[in-house]
């Protein structure tokens, strides 16, 4: 089973995020290790330097204390010197132990311990053995016994210090190598993350481009289907109007005339049956009345299908008759006004206006519960404008200007009719405030259409 693009993208992004997290952790770990090593090197060097300084101080103070012993004339100078030796010896032993812990295998440290022990072995008997020595003997003791051993200790300490400096430099170099190696590993990880990120980004861009192409194709298909549906809807409306026109003509011209002739024949038959029994005359009278009602019904149906006034007399008389019929049928007071409406309008415009007004009146009768309806038609050189207003209960509209609930197809059909001729239909309403419908249709090609209609009807434009 194939893997979908979204799955690949998901795993790719997860991999990139995982590598970024790993790189962050690795960088933090490397930084911690580097800092710890650096601190360790610095701490060891400081401790070694402190131990060496303590040893130098103890050695130097011990020599000074011996010199002061020979120069002093105090009776308890031997006791004081012993106490000073004990204190300095303890300090030197502590510093030497620390130094041995830091460098347990260093030969210089072992040599220092031997020299330091020899140094103190010469100093410890001084309070008893040199208590009564004269100045020449004291000077000779210091120069022959103390100074050489002290210088040897200083040389050993200097050697250890130089070795510590060399060890510090080696540690720094090793630290730099380790840091460089860690930086290489981190750069490799980051480079891998960047490469993987580019791969995922490239795949994402290709996937997005493919989706965009598919969306564009689907959008074109939807637009094409929408255009085909609009053309089909327009064609259906044309066929419906044509069918209504033909059926209206057939009802009016054929069936209506046949029924009128039948009514006339029944009237002639009534004249011929003056001496006939009353039952025969009553039957003929009822037949004549039935024929008259049937003629009127056929005419009404013909007018509802396609009023002949719309084709014969124009838009304004057809709308006037429509409102009068609506007022007679529903009892709602109607007011009609027109201004500048020409007789020679394109058939599509006349049909659109008539059907929109017819549908609006139907909705008003069915839903509005209005007591008054006003319809006005105004024509200017560039457009025709129709306004319909009632004082009914109104309705609630959504943000698109359509009824929010229980909305039928009437308003949608009116808008489709308006859009078919390039017009626009606006609906204004609110609960309890009535409804106002405004239809506006441009008449850019009105002159050409009027000439064409005039040529077809034989009337001069």
List key phrases describing it:
461 residues, alpha+beta, Four Helix Bundle (Hemerythrin (Met), subunit A), Heat Shock Protein 90, 2 domains, 5-stranded mixed sheet, 11 helices, 5 strands, 75% helix, rod-shaped, disordered C terminus
Mean pLDDT: 78
| Alpha-beta content class | alpha+beta
Report the principal-axis shape. Answer: rod-shaped
Note the gap between the termini.
Answer: 73 Å
Any low-confidence stretches, pLDDT <50, length ≥5?
446-461
Task: Give an account of the 3D structure.
There is one protein chain. By secondary structure, the chain is α+β, with helices and mostly antiparallel strands. The protein folds into two domains: 5-205, Aspartate receptor, ligand-binding domain (Four Helix Bundle (Hemerythrin (Met), subunit A)), CATH 1.20.120.30; 313-457, Heat Shock Protein 90 (2-Layer Sandwich). 75% of the residues lie in helices and 8% in strands. It has helices at 5-71, 77-102, 107-123, 126-129, 135-272, 278-305, 308-312, 315-330, 347-368, 410-420, 446-457, and strands at residues 333-339, 372-379, 383-390, 424-429, 435-442. The protein has a five-stranded mixed beta sheet. Strand 1, helix 9 and strand 2 (372-379) form a beta-alpha-beta unit. Helix 8 (315-330) packs parallel to helix 9 (347-368) and helix 9 (347-368) runs antiparallel to helix 10 (410-420). It starts with a helix and ends with a helix.
């Amino acid at each position: 089973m194939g893997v979908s693009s979204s799955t690949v993208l998901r795993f790719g992004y997860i991999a990139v995020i995982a590598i970024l997290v790993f790189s962050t952790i690795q960088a933090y770990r490397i930084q911690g290790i580097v800092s710890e090593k650096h601190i360790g090197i610095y701490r060891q060097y400081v401790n070694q330097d402190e131990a060496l300084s303590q040893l130098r101080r103890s050695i130097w103070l011990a020599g000074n204390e011996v010199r002061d012993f020979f120069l002093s004339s105090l009776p308890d100078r031997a006791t004081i010197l012993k106490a000073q030796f004990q204190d300095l010896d303890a300090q030197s032993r502590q510093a030497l132990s620390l130094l041995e812990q830091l460098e347990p295998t260093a030969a210089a440290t072992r040599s220092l311990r031997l020299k330091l022990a020899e140094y103190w072995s010469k100093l410890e008997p001084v309070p008893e053995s040199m208590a009564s020595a004269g100045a020449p003997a004291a000077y000779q003791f210091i120069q022959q016994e103390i100074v050489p051993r002290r210088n040897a200790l200083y040389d050993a300490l200097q050697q250890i210090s130089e070795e510590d400096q060399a060890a510090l430099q080696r540690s720094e170099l090793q630290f730099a190598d380790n840091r460089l190696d860690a930086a290489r590993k981190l750069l490799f990880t980051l480079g891998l993350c960047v490469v993987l990120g580019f791969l995922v980004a490239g795949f994402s861009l290709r996937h997005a481009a493919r989706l965009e192409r598919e969306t564009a194709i689907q959008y074109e298909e939807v637009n094409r289907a929408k255009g085909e549906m609009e053309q089909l809807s327009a064609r259906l409306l044309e066929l419906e109007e044509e069918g209504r026109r033909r059926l209206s003509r057939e009802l009016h011209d054929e069936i209506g005339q046949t029924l009128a002739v039948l009514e006339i024949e029944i009237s002639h038959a009534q004249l011929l049956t003056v001496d006939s029994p009353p039952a025969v005359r009553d039957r003929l009278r009822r037949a004549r009345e039935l024929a008259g009602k049937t003629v009127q019904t056929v005419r009404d149906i013909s007018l509802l299908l396609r009023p002949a006034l719309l084709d014969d007399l124009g838009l304004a008389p057809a709308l006037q008759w429509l409102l009068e019929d609506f007022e007679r049928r529903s009892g709602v007071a109607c007011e009609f006004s027109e201004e500048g409406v020409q007789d020679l309008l394109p058939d599509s415009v006349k049909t659109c206006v008539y059907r929109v007004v017819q549908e609006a009146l139907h909705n008003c009768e069915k839903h509005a519960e209005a007591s008054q309806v006003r319809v006005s038609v105004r024509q200017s050189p560039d457009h025709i404008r129709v306004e319909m207003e009632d004082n009914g209960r109104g309705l609630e509209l959504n943000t698109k200007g359509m009824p929010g609930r229980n909305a039928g197809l009437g308003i949608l059909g009116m808008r489709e009719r308006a859009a078919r001729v390039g017009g626009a239909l606006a609906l204004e309403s609110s609960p309890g405030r009535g409804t106002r419908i405004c239809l506006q249709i441009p008449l850019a090609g009105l002159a050409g259409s009027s000439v064409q209609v005039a040529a077809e009807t034989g009337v001069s434009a």
